[in-house]
Amino acid sequence: MAELNRRDLEIFTGANYGTFVTMNPDGSLHATITWVDAGDGNVLINTAQGRVKDRNVRANPRVAIAVLPDGDAYDWISIIGTVVDIETGE
Prior knowledge:
The structure is a single chain. The protein is α+β, with helices and mostly antiparallel strands. Helices cover 18% and strands 38% of the residues. It has 2 helices and 5 strands; from the N terminus they run αβββαββ. Strands 3-2-1-4-5 form a 5-stranded antiparallel β-sheet. Strand 2 (29-39) and strand 3 form a beta hairpin. The N and C termini lie far apart (29 Å).
């Protein structure tokens, strides 16, 4: 598992949105724009319980995220990985 470097952290903790990709039950992909952050070496994704991305991650934790700081297509980061924890905020 690779660790986030200084630049990665700047991108994930900056005022940027990411395209979060999950897998639907039929195997098709679901992509959505979402808020991103980072903490304790992990990428954090915001969603509400019951939304498609939440349901998809609970069924299949393999995901991808791509972030373009300030929408700059020449300066971006992407990560493919597995969700390790889901927090409900309760």
